[in-house]
Write a structure and sequence with these properties.
Layout lengths: L8 E2 L41 H13 L4 E6 L9 H10 L5 E5 L5 H13 L3 E5 L9 H6 L4 H4 L5 H22 L4 E4 L15 H19 L5 E6 L17 E4 L8 H8 L7 E6 L5 H7 L5 E4 L3 H4 L3 H8 L4 E2 L9 E3 L1 E3 L10 E5 L6 E4 L3 E3 L6 E8 L6 E8 L2 E2 L6 E3 L12 H11 L8 H6 L9 H11 L7
Parallel strand pairs: 2-3, 2-9, 2-10, 3-4, 4-5, 5-6, 6-7, 7-8, 8-9, 12-19
Antiparallel strand pairs: 1-14, 11-15, 13-14, 13-16, 16-17, 17-18
Helix pairs in contact: 3-6, 12-14
The structure holds calcium ion (2 copies).
């Protein structure tokens, strides 16, 4: 994706506007689409019913993983203001973190909900953890409780019912955030394999059972489809604790040893999964050059609250927050993030750069290095946005910006050149569709016209058919 400071925006003063001539027997007019039927992003969340903005947020994470590190800061609530850490970072670096870390501990459900909503309103991302005893309260209980796991994990027991009654409070708060359109990076039962919190004390098998139990309860019974499940290991990343790909979306490791946590990175990489990875807690954040040298470009790092953030070396903190490799609040805009689904099964074609042109007066054009990008700053209004990629038929979407934000997600999809019916290949059925258009038996409409015009002359005729045929025969490939 494209990020403002890393953007390769070309101010194409010389770029010709794409006014095409339509002068043939069977020519077609440029079509514009406002929105396709459904979301078709590449990355799959564990919850197939996750809502669209949650899917889009996950695409944003997957697209940036190993390329940019997102800044995240855990808040405290007892230092005079819950913005104690945010104010400190802003004063020290001139920036704010892109993601805010919150904690339901001590029953602060309504406070977390209101601060998470406010942060979301500012365009930020939200992650929530929970220091809780089995039946409630905070940090002390999370460390001291020691359950009888066989009773606790058996449905119908008093122990189970009491635990779930506590879960209901968190589920209710998360549901309020769902109603407010807030996606949550939900990080329960963190550092489980360290076994210092009650949720890890029963060993790996009880933990896996507990994690899946909460996952199923929140997703299926509570209907929470705004969660991105973050599985936060300790620094050790002990083997045997992974609940499975269908029960989490992001894996993480933490350490307070002032390193980039390369040890945790390597152990997570060795797990049989390719989920994005987060450095979900740390004390002193290392320099960006350390992360680059170690090659562990985590999805995000989260510095812990109070003394942990103020204990950071100020000049390093400032350098990290102002690095081109690091994303801060002013540099992310998930609302204006556009993910383009390249409709193909060929891996080699899935990561093509996308050229984006707008019909605005400045004639803005830019090329994104991947199939996703953040819209450049445009004045409020309606634009025709044309997306093109080398192997794909160009497509124009009408987008509307209101209050600087996309009014609706274009859910952009590009088909391969010549793939008229959109089934990810050229076959006899595509040729048939083009033939019957030329013979005016059945006219193609909308984007199918652009897919059929492989000779790119704004007409559908015999030369398109010829090119498609020779692609089918492998004589001259279109892509
Ligand atoms: Ca086809
Ligand atoms: Ca043509």
């Amino acid at each position: 994706m494209i990020i403002k400071k890393a953007a390769t925006i070309v101010c194409a003063a010389v770029m010709m506007t794409c006014v095409q001539s339509f002068s043939a027997d069977v020519s077609y007019a440029e079509s514009t689409e406002t929105q396709s039927s459904s979301y078709a992003g590449r990355y799959q969340l564990s919850d197939p019913d996750a809502n669209d903005s949650t899917k889009k947020t996950y695409d944003f994470i997957c697209d940036n993983f190993e390329r940019y590190i997102i800044t995240c800061q855990q808040e405290s609530t007892w230092m005079g203001s819950p913005d104690y850490e945010m104010n400190y970072i802003e004063k020290t670096t001139g920036k704010l973190p892109a993601m805010r870390g919150l904690d339901f501990m001590n029953g602060d459900f309504s406070g977390v909900v209101s601060r998470a909503k406010a942060w979301h309103e500012k365009g930020g991302l939200v992650t929530i953890c929970w220091h809780t005893g089995i039946n409630g309260n905070g940090y002390t209980e999370s460390l001291n409780d020691s359950p009888n796991f066989s009773k606790l994990l058996t449905k119908g027991t008093t122990e189970y019912k009491n635990m779930v009654a506590n879960w209901d409070k968190a589920a209710d708060a998360l549901s309020q955030l769902q109603d407010a359109g807030v996606t949550v990076f939900w990080r329960p039962f963190h550092e489980f394999d360290g076994q210092w919190f009650w949720w890890g004390k029963g060993g790996s098998q009880n933990f896996i059972k507990l994690w899946r139990m909460m996952y199923d309860y929140f997703t299926n019974e509570k209907g929470l489809h705004n969660l991105i499940w973050v599985l936060g290991y300790s620094g050790d990343v002990k083997s045997g604790w992974y609940p499975g790909d269908s029960y989490c979306d992001i894996i993480g490791s933490d350490t307070y040893d002032n390193t980039t946590n390369l040890k945790g990175w390597n152990k997570l990489k060795a797990l049989d999964t390719d989920k994005p990875m987060t450095f979900h807690e740390c004390g002193n954040v290392p320099s960006v050059s350390d992360f680059e040298a170690d090659g562990d470009i985590w999805s995000w790092f989260m510095i812990w609250h109070t003394d942990y953030i103020t204990g950071n070396d100020k000049s390093n903190l400032k350098a990290v927050y102002n690095s081109d490799k690091v994303l801060t609040l002013d540099e992310i805009s998930v609302d204006n993030y556009v993910y383009v689904t390249l409709n193909t099964n060929k891996d080699s074609l899935m990561q093509q750069p996308i050229t984006v042109t707008f019909d605005d007066t400045d004639n803005t054009e830019f090329t994104s290095e991947s199939s996703a990008f953040t819209l450049p700053e445009l004045k409020d209004g309606t634009y025709k946005m044309t997306l093109s990629a080398e192997s794909f038929a160009p497509r124009t979407y009408e987008i509307e910006l209101s209050g600087g934000k996309l009014a609706s997600d274009p859910n952009a999809v590009l088909n391969l050149k010549g793939d008229v019916n959109g089934d990810k290949n050229i076959s006899a059925s595509d040729l048939l569709l083009v033939k019957s258009h030329i013979k005016q038996v059945k006219l193609l409409e909308g984007y199918a016209l652009s897919c059929a015009d492989v000779a790119k002359d704004s007409k559908i005729n015999a030369s398109d058919l010829l090119k498609m045929k020779s692609h089918l025969k492998g004589v001259s490939l279109l892509w």
